[in-house]
Specification:
The chain is α/β, with parallel strands linked by helices and 344 residues long. 31% of the residues lie in helices and 24% in strands. The N and C termini lie close together (5 Å). The relative contact order is 0.15. Bound molecules: NADP nicotinamide-adenine-dinucleotide phosphate and ligand 3JN.
């Protein structure tokens, strides 16, 4: 609606993702009448700067959603399960960045460049996919629509910021401790809620999130289930290996795609380059390819190392990098909110 302004709550405003949401709401000039930053009782009462003013963080309780139009949730699945419906009952549309409702019927799972039309089907809650899913489905979208996709084999190289600000802090402290020959603190990674923790600095850990079915982790199964839901295609074959690497920000993915039809490589590159939200950086002779350090702080998905499978005429390899806190989380949520208000 033209000129309308909105009361926007950010649940998890002090977190790694919530902080990016606040920055983006400001930078993208989201039409805000009132910003309501919410957190647990731990941070309630602290202040943040927003649009040049000091705003006090409130505790996220059911009544904190009174009068809220749009609630951006990013404080973990249990908080969303406890409070999202309370927010909806008080008239808000919830855009949820957690796993709580992603696979629920009646909850659209949206990457705006891929399936914006799903937003219109919402019944109060719209889910933001997992970060590893978002950058992959955006890379697959033009290929899926032009050739069809038989199957996908993906391996991820995930930054520690995906596991929250404590994991980022831990990587810094571990790196310093190793370099200074001190005892290495191990409290957060690979999974904060589990008892066993490993050193992340100077290491690679083949576990993101808890164990799930058939020897896969939950992160791997999120990629499988969410991709099928976003493309509305249960037949899409996909297998994932998710790995944590000592990178602060930016997830990388090596994606092998087997298309349903044979393709021309130049056409694939053109399709990817024309896709909104994608930047192609692909010239191995010039050492041009995406890397997380360069992708950090940008909202696009960067694609390079585009090359054929030399033994399969429908096989294709891609290297896909994006800032997990931006397109993987905050940017995608705010794009959903923008699409939502555009459609009013
Ligand atoms: P984080 O840095 O650890 O921050 C957690 C945030 O949640 C803080 O603001 C914290 O507030 C708040 N919080 C914790 N318990 C709460 C409670 N009981 N009530 C209200 N607020 C509470 O974590 P993060 O990296 O920002 O991630 C937060 C969540 O976002 C994750 O758990 C996940 O569900 C989701 N996420 C999604 C993606 C994605 O793939 N799309 C990526 C990363 C994260 P205090 O300051 O009060 O502790
Ligand atoms: O580890 C990553 O790189 C992404 C993490 C996402 C995440 C972390 C904690 C809880 C999620 C998520 O968005 O799937 C959740 C969750 O909501 O279950």
């Amino acid at each position: 609606m033209a000129n309308k302004k909105y009361v926007v709550a950010v649940v998890g405003a002090t977190g790694a993702v919530g902080q990016q949401m606040l920055k983006l709401l400001e930078a993208r000039q989201f039409p805000i009448e009132e910003l309501r930053p919410l957190s647990s009782a731990r941070s309630a009462g602290k202040t943040i700067q927003f649009q040049g003013k000091e705003v006090t963080i409130q505790e996220a309780t059911p009544d904190a959603f009174t009068g809220v139009d749009i609630a951006l949730f990013s404080a973990g699945g249990s908080v969303s399960k406890r409070l999202a419906k309370e927010a909806v009952e008080r008239g808000a549309v919830v855009i949820d960045n957690t796993n709580a409702f992603r696979m629920s019927e009646g909850v659209p799972l949206v990457v705006p460049e891929v399936n914006k039309e799903a937003i219109a089907t919402h019944q109060g809650i719209i889910s933001n996919p997992n970060c590893s899913t978002i950058q992959m489905v955006l890379a697959l979208k033009p290929l899926y629509h032009r050739y069809g996709i038989e199957r996908v084999i993906v391996s991820t190289y995930q930054a520690v910021s995906g596991a929250g600000w404590r994991a980022q802090d831990e990587l810094k402290r571990q790196t310093e401790a190793v370099l200074q020959g001190k005892e290495v603190p191990k409290e957060v990674l690979p999974v904060g809620s589990l008892d066993r923790h490993y050193q992340m600095a100077f290491n690679v850990i083949p576990q993101v999130d808890v164990a799930d079915q058939d020897g896969y982790t939950l992160e791997e199964m999120k990629m499988v289930r969410e991709t099928k839901k976003i493309f509305n295609d249960d037949q899409l074959g996909i297998t994932a290996t998710c790995v944590r690497v000592p990178v602060m920000r930016g997830h990388s993915e090596s994606i092998y795609v087997e298309l349903k039809e044979e393709y021309r490589l130049d056409e694939v590159k053109t399709l990817l380059a024309q896709q909104e939200g994608i930047v192609v950086q692909d010239a191995i002779e010039e050492q041009l390819y995406p890397m997380p350090l360069q992708a950090a702080d940008h909202s696009e998905v960067f694609i390079g190392r585009i090359r054929p499978d030399l033994h399969h005429p429908r096989g294709l390899n891609l290297w896909v990098v994006s800032d997990n806190l931006l397109k993987g989380a905050a940017t995608n949520s705010i794009q959903i909110a923008e699409a939502l208000i555009e459609s009013e």
